[in-house]
Amino acid sequence: MKPSRVHVGEVIRNAVAFNFKNSGEEILNADSLPESVERLFDLLHERGIDYLLVGGVAMLGYVEGRNTEDIDLILAVSDIQKLPEITIEDLDIDFARGSFERLRVDLLLTRNPLFEQVRRQHATTGHFMERDVPCASVEGLLLLKLYALPSLYRQGNFARVGLYENDVATLVEAYRPSLEPLLSELYDYLSPTDLAAVRDIVSEIQGRIERFGRGR
C-alpha cells in the first residue's frame, strides 16, 4: 500500500534538525526549509523547467520511513542557467551540487544518457502535500540506484551502498516490478563486469525477499 501524502519540506526540515552531525547554524535554520522547498517548486513550474524528481524525496512517494536532507532532480545543463537562484558549488559531467537558499540541491544532468532515458521513459506524477510534481517511477528509481551501485562499491562508500541496496529491496518487495527488463536496459550503460555485479546484487536481494517472505 502506498504511504499517505507526505510534506516534503517537513521531512527535510526534520532530517536536518535531528542530524546532530550538522552544524549548529544548519540546525537552527532548519525551520526555513519547508518554505524553500515550496519556492523551488514554484520556480521550476514558472520557468517551464523539464525536470524529474528523484532520490530520497521521490522514494517518499512509494515507501514510508525514508529520510533525506536534500532535493534531487534530473534536468538539462541548459536549465541550470534558468535557475540562477541555485548556487552551484560543484559541477562535473554527470552531476551538479548546489544550494537554493538553505536547501541542498543535487542535480543529475541529462548529458548522461541513462539520466535522460529515465526522465523521458520512467516518469510519473508524484503526489505530495505541497503539490503534484514530475517524479521517477518505481522502475526509474530502481534503474538509477542499480546504475550507481558499482561506482559506490569502488569508492568504498558503504554507507551509501547500504542505503541504496535497502531502497532497492524495499521497492522490489513492495511493488514486485519485473527486474529483467530493467537489467536489460542497463546493458548499454554499464560495463559487462559492472552489469554482472548488479545482477548478483539483484539476485541476492530477491533471494532474501523470498526466504523471509515464506514465513508470512
Describe the 3D structure.
By secondary structure, the protein is an alpha+beta fold. It has two domains: 8-136, 2-Layer Sandwich (Beta Polymerase, domain 2), CATH 3.30.460; 141-213, no CATH class. The protein has helices at 8-17, 24-28, 33-46, 55-60, 77-80, 113-121, 138-155, 158-175, 179-185, 192-213; strands spanning 52-54, 70-75, 86-91, 95-100, 103-109, 123-127, 132-136. A hairpin with a 4-residue loop joins strand 6 and strand 7 (132-136). Helix 7 crosses helix 10. The two termini are 17 Å apart.
- Report the principal-axis shape: globular
Spatial order of the strands forming the largest sheet: 1-2-5-4-3
- Helical proportion, percent range: 40-55%
Instruction: Determine the number of helices (DSSP H or I, runs of at least 4 residues).
Output: 10
- What is the name of the CATH architecture of the largest domain? 2-Layer Sandwich
How much of the sequence lies in strands comes to: 15-25%
Q: How many strands appear in the DSSP assignment?
A: 7
Q: What do we call the CATH topology of the largest domain?
A: Beta Polymerase, domain 2
CATH class of the largest domain: Alpha Beta
Parts with pLDDT < 50 across at least 5 consecutive residues: none
Give the N-terminus to C-terminus distance in angstroms: 17 Å
Topology as a string of helices (H) and strands (E):
HHHEHEHEEEHEEHHHH
Structural class, from helix and strand content? alpha+beta
